[in-house]
Design goal:
By secondary structure, this protein is of the alpha+beta class. It has 2 domains: about 100 residues, 3-Layer(aba) Sandwich (Glutaredoxin), CATH 3.40.30.10; about 45 residues, no CATH class. Helices cover about 20% and strands about 20% of the residues. The protein has 4 helices and 6 strands. The strands form 2 sheets. A 4-stranded mixed beta sheet has the order 2-1-3-4. Strands 5-6 form a two-stranded antiparallel ribbon. About 20% of the residues have low confidence. This is Selenoprotein W-like protein. Keywords: Redox-active center.
Length: about 180
C-alpha cells in the first residue's frame, strides 16, 4: 500500500448529493481558496447523503504527529448554512488568528463561542411549512413554492419535475 501524504491544514466540505448542494459546497471551497490561497494545504468536497452539510478543518497538532479535527460548521446543529464571512473567520481563527481578513473583519460581530456539540432536543420532525401559492391560476399546484414533501421548489413545473431542498432539522432528507 502506498503512503498517502495529506497537505495540512485541510478543509473538507461534506454535502448531501440528494439535496443538490454540490454547487453550494463548491462555492464555499472557491471562497476559502481565494481568501487563504496557499495557507490551506487542501480543500476537499465529500459527497454524502441524509441532508448533511458539514465543514471540518484538519490541522497538525504542534510538536506531535497527531492530526486534530475541528468542526467548523454543521448545518443541522447551526440551523442552516454559514455566511461566507463567518466560515472564513472560523478557518482564520484556527490556522492564523493574527491574520486580517480585511472587509470581513471590519463588519465583524462580537466574538461568539463555537462548540462542536449540540444540546438541542429534536422530535425528529421538521416544523410544518405552509404551502404558499404564487401568482397563477387559482388552484394551480404547479405554482406552489413548497412541494408535497415540504421541500422548497426551485425549478421544474411539470408533473413530477419539481426539485426541492431539505429544510434545517429535516432528518429524513430525500428530495
Amino acid at each position: 500500500m502506498a503512503n498517502v501524504v495529506t497537505a495540512l491544514p485541510r478543509v473538507t466540505i461534506e454535502f448531501c448529493t440528494q439535496c443538490k448542494w454540490m454547487l453550494r459546497a463548491a462555492y464555499f471551497a472557491q471562497e476559502l481558496i481565494s481568501t487563504f490561497s496557499t495557507s490551506l494545504g487542501e480543500v476537499a468536497l465529500q459527497p454524502s447523503t441524509g441532508g448533511v452539510f458539514a465543514v471540518h478543518l484538519y490541522t497538525a497538532a504542534p510538536s506531535t504527529t497527531t492530526i486534530q479535527k475541528h468542526l467548523l460548521w454543521d448545518r443541522k446543529a447551526e440551523g442552516g448554512f454559514p455566511e461566507t464571512k463567518e466560515l472564513k473567520r472560523r478557518v482564520r481563527d484556527i490556522i492564523d488568528p493574527s491574520r486580517d481578513l480585511g472587509h470581513v473583519d471590519s463588519h465583524a460581530k462580537p466574538a461568539t463561542t463555537t462548540t462542536t456539540t449540540s444540546s438541542t432536543a429534536t422530535t425528529g420532525q421538521a416544523p410544518p411549512v405552509e404551502k404558499v401559492a404564487q401568482a397563477g391560476a387559482a388552484g394551480d399546484d404547479a405554482w406552489n413554492v413548497v412541494n408535497e414533501n415540504g421541500k422548497v421548489v426551485i425549478g421544474g413545473g411539470g408533473e413530477g419535475e419539481s426539485f426541492g431542498f431539505c429544510r434545517p432539522g429535516d432528518e429524513n432528507c430525500c428530495c
